[in-house]
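Notebook B, p. 112. Complex prediction, attempt 2.
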Amino acid sequence: MPCQSQARNGLFRRGAIRFRTCPMKINGIPYRSIRLDEADGWSIRILDQTRLPWQVEWLRLTDEDQVAHAIRSMQVRGAPLIGAVAAYGMALAMRRDPAALEPVAAMLGETRPTAINLRWALEKMLAVLRPVPAAVREAAAYAEAAAICDDDAATCEAIGRHGLPLLQDIAARKPGQRVNILTHCNAGWIATVDWGTALAPIYMAHDAGIPVHVWVDETRPRNQGAALTAWELGAHGVPHTVIADNAGGHLMQHGEVDIVIVGTDRVTRRGDVANKIGTYLKALAAQDNGVPFWVALPHSTLDMRVADGVRDIPIEERAAEEVTDITGQDAEGRITRIRVAAAGSPAANPAFDVTPARLVTGLITERGRVAASEAALAALYPEKIAR
Amino acid sequence: MPCQSQARNGLFRRGAIRFRTCPMKINGIPYRSIRLDEADGWSIRILDQTRLPWQVEWLRLTDEDQVAHAIRSMQVRGAPLIGAVAAYGMALAMRRDPAALEPVAAMLGETRPTAINLRWALEKMLAVLRPVPAAVREAAAYAEAAAICDDDAATCEAIGRHGLPLLQDIAARKPGQRVNILTHCNAGWIATVDWGTALAPIYMAHDAGIPVHVWVDETRPRNQGAALTAWELGAHGVPHTVIADNAGGHLMQHGEVDIVIVGTDRVTRRGDVANKIGTYLKALAAQDNGVPFWVALPHSTLDMRVADGVRDIPIEERAAEEVTDITGQDAEGRITRIRVAAAGSPAANPAFDVTPARLVTGLITERGRVAASEAALAALYPEKIAR
């Protein structure tokens, strides 16, 4: 099941961005995190992220309800990937009933509240499909979903290129020593279509011979760091160390972190950053210790309709069991769920927090690095203001 | 196995402090976290904290090696309790060989590096036992260990009384609403001999009818919050909610935390606070959101020999498996260990961090509340300066 560009070409141009498709590898074989099934050419294959790091299982999705379930249950997660998968959910729905455009978009749009890419992708699909006759909606939907995926891969590759100089600069300042990057949650290639956002510059630096080392926050409660980021980095050969989410501040106090790079689920027009719960705490520690705190994002993560992120970005409250219970592999290799918390103790599980722009050193976008401010974002994305 | 004061009296005076013994209950029965075995009168019973919250198991310790193992393996943990158990470890050793005073103290002193109470208790034992003839060292050691335990219980009760007004004040400002306290790790009665440090004011407020509610940080990697604090609070009937360590900042941003109270393993003479890894991140969030951040400690936790905590407090690095693997109870009730992190990914496990005094609103001691500053601490504990 190797990598397959939906556009079926290995090297091409989109706008000003030149990129290779599918650089990300598992055991040396390049993959994208979403693709059409090779056998039937219409159903969707996704890497089931609830099975990682124990099993690499490519789940087949055949209708929009399966897509909604995959997003809700976090079989797919990561803001850019959620958008891409939702786009294909629209394509699957059009295959069955071209008239179901609006209700399917509304249903998919309600699967998760925080990542704005979901809304962005669905609005893009609606804009293409609404004017199109029912008879050709299926073809148009598949074409647009493929374009969204290719665009995301190209965008993430560009994010990588614009983030790379940050790591090159650190490497130049401390020759012969490792460049220590701390990241939270998973903003790697499996959170996007390819490359990743926060991890894209790290992969490029590693491939370029810079001695990067990544502190991987385990990212409770769902352990996307310990389970997904560590797996991704390990599969690609990038040196890394898993740490409890509690450890980052201590490491920064002792000079063990050169830079923090995280992804995001939504950035407001003034630069407030929603990301996995706990990101805000790392931003505070970075500020307190003079460590640069960068946020990597594609254009699809910008929400120009919101200014004050703490006040206005909806924060998903997920099930208490994600906190009280943990899934892992027992000594016999069985995937087992255990309860960690005291019996009868309730739990709360806000899934995201918002880091105010004042704590963000800068944003790494596909158009370049930019300050987390309304003026800078408006200058970089003028077409988003006009809308 | 009910509560047993080593001094065998239910209400008595020690200095200016009046207290009841053994207010802390499991299912309505009062207990202390350490006591002499009822049957033989000389061996030690401890609550095995590696079995909580699943089993209430009173482990019997009969020699200093078992005591050392119990401390290292964290069957007993919590700075004050470590000191009390080490004191009884000396008593057990004196029973076998009164000449082994110095080597046993050195051995016990190396079991864990960060909590200063361990050194404090051993120095106290040495000061009593060194001048005493070998023939009476056993009796003297048991008497001093009992005094250390009674002193700790009295001290913690006084900490509770001095912390209580903080919660009463909050309750008075928001009548009819719950008082939300966030705590990290476990600084309850099972971390001490009785009452606890950070939890003592909370127990008193609850018992006084103040509608307290505790946000319990789960406290990765060893989950002392989810497993121990939640169990303690639940057993005593105090309303609480377990949260991922990542969630505290978000809750503070949204006004859901009125006060943070934590315990500590060592406070320097200028007020820097070593405590469970991740405490520093909560202190930063508290400061950023104007939430008072208080630290509760007995006199035995003060280390006047150290000023700069970040630089000079030794931070214990524990096993990587504590991060990569988690123990809990499976669906069939079996205590099971599972691996959460990706196979082959290494982990780092610093067990404590240091919160600079500038982030600490104040200290709650058995002598009253005090600023986290050199001048304030010197005024409150003049005898500690003289040494």
